[in-house]
Each structure stands twice: as C-alpha cells, then as structure tokens.
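hiii, so i know i said id send this last week but things got crazy w the move. better late than never?? heres the sequnce for the chain we talked about at the cafe, plus the structure i predicted for it. fair warning i was half asleep when i ran it
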Amino acid sequence: MSQTARPLSKKEIRQENERVILEAAEKVFAEAGFGGATMQLIADLAGLPKANLHYYFPTKEALYRQVVQTIFQDWLKAADSFDDAPGPVEGFGAYIDAKLEISRKYPERSKVWASEIMHRAPVIQDYLETTLVEWTDGRMAVIQRWIDEGKMDAIDPRHLLYMLWATTQHYADFGHQIETLNGGVPLSDEQWEAAKDSVKSIILAGIGAKR
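okay and structure toks below
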C-alpha cells in the first residue's frame, strides 16, 4: 500500500523556496550580471510570484549578496582540508578535488564571482576586504608552515593560491570552451576524474611536494 506524503512544514517550505530562488538567481546573475538581472527574471525562472522573492530577499542586492556568500562558503569548506592535512600532498590534493567538484556541480556560482570581480566588485568589495583577506592570510600561513617544515619548495604562497583558483575555476568559467574542445559534449565522469588527477599531478610536482 502506498503511503501519502506528509505535508511540508512551514520551515521545510521556506527552505525549499529559498533553495529554488537561490538556484534561479545564480543562473540569472551568471548570465546577466548584477546590473542586468531583475527580480522579475529570477522569479520567472524560479516559477514563483515576484512577491515571494521580496518576502525572502527584500532587495536584489540582498539576494545577490546571499548568492555570493553561498559561493564563498562552498570554497571555505573546500579549504577545510588545509587545516587538518599533515602536508601539501594531502592538503592540496583534497583542495583541488573539492574545488573541481564545485566547478562541476555549480558552474554558475563561479561565473557570478568572476563577473563581480571583473567589474571591480561594486557590490561585494567590503566582503573582499574582510572575509577574503582573512581567509587568504590563514591559508598562506598553512602553506608557509609546510615550506618551513621542508615539505614543499619555497614558493610564494599567494601566487600559488592564485594559480589554484585560476586552474580549478577555469573548468566552470570557461565550461563552454572546454565542452567545445571535447567534441561538443560535457566532460564525462571519467574525464572529470582524469582532470583532477592531472591537475594534482602537475601542481604537486611543480611545488616539490613531499609527504
């Protein structure tokens, strides 16, 4: 006998509506940028009345900042590997895997971030000057410790991070180019795993990583 699904609670309805709105907002902001996006476009894509968007997010800027915060929280979680890893092989290996998986699953998020930065961060400059600076300083300190312990070559941690960001986010920001060069089809599961292995091999060899 089939069971009737129980009605969603108010909390579950709210969570589902927020998820749908944020997913739609990511796509619209990625394609149109902050200036070109409208709450109506986002509402239409989400399949919700515009009034619902304003209930959860009173302004376009509030919604945009939530999208950006979601992006950055994903990247913060990807970097958790740094804190517990005994060295660069484990730390960078897990970080590259996580960042590439984010690019694979949520390409629009990376595109939103890239567009904002290319326009000199008109909406989230305060976020860059606080959260991003603190995060970067913390990761640089971990990398410097590995250098001091002789577990990798003496490479400027800042530029190494820039290279890691550029490489892993390329698979999202330039996904169409990669797809075109892949015969017009998205990368398969096997190709994504090969990409992870290749990037890890190149980076770890390039920095002289040791266990």
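btw The chain has a mean pLDDT of 93. thought thatd interest u
miss u guys!!
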